[in-house]
Amino acid sequence: xxxxxxxxxxxxxxxxxxxxxxxxxxxxxxxxxxxxxxxxxxxxxxxxxxxxxxxxxxxxxxxxxxxxxxxxxxxxxxxxxxxxxxxxxxxxxxxxxxxxxxxxxxx
Length: 107
Hints:
By secondary structure, the protein is of the alpha+beta class. Helix content is 41%, strand content 28%. The protein has a single domain (3-99), classed as Lrp/AsnC effector binding domain/regulation of amino acid metabolism (RAM) domain (Alpha-Beta Plaits), CATH 3.30.70. The mean pLDDT is 94.
């Protein structure tokens, strides 16, 4: 199944709610992904441009997008970015295929 990375930031209201009542969001996220046929790998919180990262698998890009849209529709996130991830084996296959394909650069 394809892998995805979903980067997010919480609204100030979400942070206020979480600091008053800390909640492990993994079970809610797991349930959301499973409804679309996906699987949660894990959730990480971070410093910087994003507040957190969700690593997950989804059967299709449409299922991944539906999961992201459903999560965003709750209104507690301000920023999101979804990235398709390739395993090392998939990247190697892409490199092999690229090596077999010719493309002329502009002159």
